[in-house]
Amino acid sequence: MHRGMPQGFYSRLPRALKHRIFTEPNYMNYLFQRLMLAGILLLTAGAYAQDKDFYIFLCFGQSNMEGFPGIPDEDKTFADPRFQVLAAVDFPELKREKGNWYTALTPLCRPNSGLCPADYFGRTLVANLPAKVKIGVVNVSIGGSKIELFDKANCESYVATAPSWMKPVIAAYGGNPYLHLVEMGKLAQRAGVIKGILLHQGESNTNDKEWPNKVKAIYENLLRDLDLKADEVPLLAGELMGAEQKGACASMNGIIAELPKIVSTAHIVSSQGCIGRPDHLHFTPEGYRQLGQRYAETMLPLLGLNPVGGN
Hints:
Elements: H1 15-23, H2 27-47, E1 54-61, H3 63-66, E2 83-86, E3 101-103, H4 117-128, E4 134-141, H5 155-160, H6 167-172, H7 177-189, E5 193-200, H8 211-225, E6 235-238, H9 252-256, H10 259-262, E7 266-269, H11 285-302
Parallel strand pairs: 1-4, 1-5, 2-4, 5-6, 6-7
Antiparallel strand pairs: 2-3
Helix pairs in contact: 4-11
């Protein structure tokens, strides 16, 4: 009898299994090893049990979702542990390691990025949701990139012809930002539940009437690759800097507005009145705060709640 087995163990075994144990000397060791492995797998599964009150949001896009460099002092003191970021890359100065969760202190995308809509999206959600609910974001964004960079079918060819200044950033995401977002998404799912996808992109695709269809394909790929359901994971797409701010790509907002017509679970986040920088492409910190709050105000009703105040 193998040591470690409970009393009466053999008496409860089927006859055929007893025969193999007593006639094949190595079979008992094999059986014991399989039982041990099953126990380890159960323990491992328990260690990664999902917290149903940990709401996770995937964020991707180009420079405005990445965050224009520079962080105002007033945005450096946030310390609510209910808002977390999953580091998609290493942040040496902040002592963040890729694949680990941290309190969502700016920057959220990469070490040299700045304030972005995801910052005040998360801060607004934790201010409006029950205290038991935590918010987590995963941000994989690259300034100057076309939407094709996140398309599985076109990513490889896009990377091959990407400008030299962009290639180190792409390399930080393993050479394929889409697959990196999926990898981080799967890791995030061990801790919580993906509740939505945030997109801010379009400047590099200005006047591209196929943009909504391209976004639809990426959204559907994410749903498929992460085993998500569209009616449980809406897509929130933000407008670019508007015409009233003399936005250089404001004409793209008319194309972005077409997205809900082909993606029923897509919602457009208005940028009207969000203050822009003199480059007419990027928002100011105040503009990012306004836009992030609007992403949250769009998301809250989809979570069954209404925001405390409007903006």
